[in-house]
Each structure stands twice: as structure tokens, then as C-alpha cells.
Amino acid sequence: IPLPVDLFGAERRNSAGVDLADRTTLGETVSSLRGFVSLCEQKDDLAQSHKGTKEEAKKAVGAAAAAFPAWAGRSIEDRCAIVERLADLLEAHRDELMAICVSEAFKTIPDALGEVREAVDFCRYYARAARDGLQPVELPGPTGERNVLRYAGRGVWATIAPWNFPLAIFLGQTVAALVTGNTVVAKPAPQTPRIAARAVALAHQAGVPSDALILLPGGPEVGAALTADPRIAGVAFTGSTATARKIARSLLEDDTRPIVPLIAETGGINAMIVDSTALPEQVVADVVTSAFRSAGQRCSALRLLLLQEEIAETTIAMLKGAMDTLRLGDPGDPATDVGPVIDQAAYDKLMAYRARATVLKTLDAPAEGLFVPPTLIRLARIEDLTAEWFGPILHVVTWPSGKLAETIRSVNAKGYGLTMGLHSRIARAAEETEALAEVGNLYVNRSMIGAVVGSQPFGGEGLSGTGPKAGGPNYLHRFVVERAVSVDTTSAGGNATLLSLDEGGI
Ligand code: UN1
Hints:
Elements: H1 27-42, H2 46-49, H3 54-73, H4 76-92, H5 94-105, H6 109-133, E1 137-139, E2 145-153, E3 156-160, H7 168-179, E4 183-187, H8 193-206, E5 213-215, H9 220-228, E6 232-238, H10 241-253, E7 262-265, E8 270-274, H11 280-292, E9 302-308, H12 309-324, H13 344-355, E10 359-362, E11 375-378, E12 393-399, H14 404-412, E13 416-417, E14 419-423, H15 427-436, E15 441-444, E16 461-462, E17 480-488
Bound molecules: 2-aminohexanedioic acid.
Cofactor: FAD
Keywords: DNA-binding, FAD, Flavoprotein, NAD, Oxidoreductase, Proline metabolism, Repressor, Transcription, Transcription regulation
Pathway: Amino-acid degradation; L-proline degradation into L-glutamate; L-glutamate from L-proline: step 1/2; Amino-acid degradation; L-proline degradation into L-glutamate; L-glutamate from L-proline: step 2/2
């Protein structure tokens, strides 16, 4: 049953106030992209040809450590202005950045546009949050004492980014560390070094000193060398739960090393619960967007669709019809809904899994390229899904009437807690889900992807991550140390203030 809706038009709006999937505005962008894509393909720049080594990781940390005092000593206003200049530069280079996202990460055009906009949003949001939230705070205290709480950078942060948001998350983590007065060694995913190299070059152009932000491309060995370095004062990581665990272990291994923060944003086995009162067309559109947009390669993506028994067969029939309207193909073609997956290893893993599953519906894939066709798989029980399959693969399970709480508890029992969706028109169902769902982001009657910076702080619980949420009001606080300074203003000869001596007098 084909649906009369633009399936991927449902992603919400961000800073520019333009629908991310508005294809009518993309014509101009696409024609200029074509030129850039071929340019990018020819360009064998540093990041692509160069893989970092363990020695370079050491050198980079040393240089960033030497740059720390000067960068930390700049005013908040200075650092915010630089980050806002970076946002302007990202906007000015939008088409070029989109082109690299398309050619290097196989993002579709609407996804590449969303990627650049989200990066811009992170820069502007964190600059504002630092300006508003990190000024010294005068605290009330016992009579006669002046108490001030100050925030200061911690030192050198390692930021380790995923390939699925190679610009937005790469820069989001990095800019948060920089704006709070830290210096950064930034390691992009091995699949996406070029977009990171462009982002770092623009940050330097915006005024970040070259030693305050150092790009370190490379694989897991380079990441391991970085986190094992005792001079690292914190790690911001987005990727798999297994890698987050390795990083946590490596940060704690050396007994002489300070205990430093790890911000980890990891995987999820995300479920959407649909009851018999939900609006069917909206459900189907939101399911297709949540499960198949970005070829399912978002940690927020829908993996497990839980349909109340009465509506299961009709919903599945509509879903199959909607899947038929999806176009697989060249991600640089604005008509494409689903592009290839990131690399051969991902392709092989997903295709092998699909081959042994009970497939309800799938599509034909283009003959050439790493296309995993959107696939609907039936499972008997919620417990049968035991792993995060990071691609366009959706599992469906039914649940009996009157068992909403049990259904939510079965999802909770997986131990992940990133996103959950509910489609229902019953207020009590929404309240019950809100009370029981152990997730970082609960979405009611909408899709489960596309968290907007500043409005929908993003991040999970349990196996899905440590918090604090990216794009939320508490994120920057994890990047700073707090210093409480208390001055007795009564004892020094009864003077209410300290004497102003110049340094030569001490
Ligand atoms: C991720 O896939 O790593 O809500 C994060 C979203 C994005 C974040 C996804 N803003 O889909």
C-alpha cells in the first residue's frame, strides 16, 4: 500500500528553520556539489594519505599540553567568539562540506545538509552555553566571607568521533572541549578523515591556535595510545559500547594517573511501541524514517518495532507498501532515500545476519555498491533481539493488549537505554511509558531520530552511555574543573577587601 507522504520529510527543523529534507531547495546545492565531489575524489590530502602512529599520538598530546595554559588563559568571550566564527565558516563552506560527507561517508544530500547544520548548531549552542553558564558565580555564604565558584579547563582532551556523524559529532565534542578552555587532540573515525581535516582547518582559520587543536587520524591503535597517555585530562567518545569499555579500562589502568572523566555516547537497541489507538499513516511514516533514514546508521535508529496484536497485520501490510517507495542509489542524487553502508565489513556483517533471519519484506539493491536493502524481520519475542544491527534492518514483534508495562520492562531488560518511541493517543499510555522507560530520549508520536541541538539534548543510559547529554545545558560542565575560592574579608586588619599589591611587592 503506497502512502501519500514524503517519508523522510518528517525530520524536525534546526537552526536555519528549513526542513532538512526539503528537496525543492536542494537543486542548486546539488549542482555545485557535483563539482566538489569529483574534486574531493581526486584530492589526496594529508588526512587521507596519512595514518597517525603511536609516536605521533605522544607528540600531539605533548604539544596540546604545552598549548593549554595560553588557551585556558584566554577569556571566555574570546573563545566563544572563535567558536562562533567557526560556525560562520562552516556555513560559508556548506556545499564543500556536504560534498565531502556524500563522497566519504555516503551520506544522502538531505543527511549531508543536516550534518552541516547540526555542526553549526553545536558551535553556536556551546558558545552561548559557555557565555551564560561558565562565568564565575558569587555564592552566598557566612557573614564576612566572599565565596566564588570558578570553572576552568581540565587540560588536554582526546575526542574520538564516529563515522556516522563525521562532522557534527566530531566537531560537537571538540568544540565543547575547546570553548571550556581545554586543548584537544581529535581523532576522527578511520573511515572519515577528510571531513575532519576540513573541519580542523576551518577551526584554525577561525582562530583556534594550531597546537590547541591537533588532528590525529588513525585506527584503534592510535586511539589506544591516546587514551593510555597519562597527560590526557578527559575523553569524549562516540562509538560502540565495547570500545567505550576498553577506553574506561585504559584510563584506570595506571595507578599513578589521575582519575579523569570519560563521556561516552554508545549504542542502543531502540524500540518503538505502537498501540491500537495510534494513527496508522503517521506510524508508518515515522517507522520508515526512524529505521531506514541514513541507512539505519544512527545510534538513535529504530531497531525493534513493537505492535499491539490487533493492529499488527495491517500495520505490517502498510509498512511493506511504504518500503516499496524507498529509492536506493547514489547518495549524491537528491532523489535517493537510502545510500550504501559505510564499508565492506559493515556490509558483510549485515548481509550475513539478514541471510539467516525470517525476512518479512526486503527490497532489491542496486547491483554494484555496498547496498544493504531495507529489511523487515519477524521475531517471536523481544528477548530474541540481542545485538545492535547498525544498518537498515528492522525487527517486528507483537505484544498483547493490557501488557504495556511488561513490554516496556522487557525492553529495559536489554540494559541499553538510548531512544524509545511510543505511538498512542491515550494520555495514560504516554504517562506510563514516561514513568517506566529507562532511556535517555523518549519520543511520543514522532520519529525517533533527528534530536535538535538545544531543544532535545541527546544521550543514553546504561549500556548506551555515560551522559551528560550532548546539545544540552549540562554538557559543558563535564569538561571543566570547579574551584571554590573563599576569602575571609574580616580578618586582614578588618579590611573588607584584600590590599592591591603589584606582583613586585610579593
Ligand atoms: C548517533 O547516531 O550517534 O538524534 C547520534 C539523532 C542524532 C544523533 C544520533 N542527532 O538522530
